[in-house]
Amino acid sequence: MLAFPSPAHAEFERASEVRQAAPGSLVPCGFFRYSVRESQFAAYNHCGTTTVRVHVDVRGGGSTNDYHLCVSPGRTQLPGAGPNYLNAYYIGGAGCRSGEQTGHTPH
Question: Which of 33, 38, 36, 30 is nearest to 90 (CA)?
Fold first, then answer.
């Protein structure tokens, strides 16, 4: 039997437009929040096979705080506290450079 490390007492909260990951996966595809003990975090799990660009909605400041982020397949931790994030969603950009972050532009 294989054991996979995971945060102690992790609780996941999925965004309403998240599609399910492959059967047996513990992490949903798309944006999600989770808690470890008393701390809250946010992440984006990309279930595809290429890098893609996602729009990250940050609480407060309207769209001036939002940004676009290129993510690789798998889980990408969003920096800072989970409650600071409202959502993150796919906007295209397959093949972008992983980790590249740009300011919000209309899409």
Answer: 30
